[in-house]
Each structure stands twice: as structure tokens, then as C-alpha cells.
Design goal:
three-stranded antiparallel beta sheet, 4 helices, globular, ten-stranded mixed beta sheet, 19% helix, alpha+beta
Length: 153
Amino acid sequence: MIDTKKTTTRNKTSVPLQIIDLHEDGFHPLINIKVFGKPFTVVLDTGASKTAFDKDMLRHAHEDTVVTISDRLSTGLGTNNMESSTAIISDLYIGKLLIDEFEVAVLDLSTINIAYSQLGHPEVLGVLGGDILMKYKAIIDYGKGKLLLHKNG
């Protein structure tokens, strides 16, 4: 007989959420990730269609990251004409889940970090968007403070 409980657990990874209060402007869930072997914090953003990292923080984390200018304009973040670039990230870890060779948008997200700093919150590398959340069938449990991802996508 196969122990399905162990199989199910092996195919999932759970990551703690840190919920921050934006002082009368709602809440943002944050998660810790690793990129290039270094720890970072990102905003879990169900409204973002694509995962996006801040261009300056990304280059500071790994100087050899190849950033390619995109011919598409990014929408959201209060504008619909933000210049964007992309980068391929080869070692993104969310908990124990390795996401290999993954394309992220690369944007100037400095205004987010300025606002977070003013509210006493940590800097973030960027936002974890719907592309990863959908692919890995994410379950966000605010009550338990956890993000659950299915490793087999």
C-alpha cells in the first residue's frame, strides 16, 4: 500500500507569510525567497500578472545578471507606460521549491521600497506574481499565515 500522505507532502512546499500593515491602506503579504544563494523578501501580489524584480537590487545581488530591454511596456504600478526589461533567473528558491530558468520582469521598483522604508518595513526585491502562483497552483492561507505551492505545477 502506498502512503499517499507522504507523497502529497513531498509534492508541496509551504512558506510562511509575513503580513505587514500599510497603516490604513491595507495589508501586504511578504515571503522570503533565495536568488543567487542570497535571501530576499518579495511581496506576494495576486494582482501582478508577472513576477517582477527591482533592477538596482537585482544587479547589486548578482552583477552578471543579463537584463534584456523588452519591447513591451509594463502596466500597473500607477502607470501604463513604464519601460521594462527581463532577466532569466536560474536559481529562484521559494522554500524548498527550486524554480529554474525563470523569466522575470525587471523594473524600477524604488518607489515601493521608499514607501516601505517610510512605514518601517523591509526592502523588497520585487513582487511574486500570478505567473508563479498559477503555475504552482498556489494556495494562500491568511489564517495560517502560509503560502502553499505544488511542486509539480
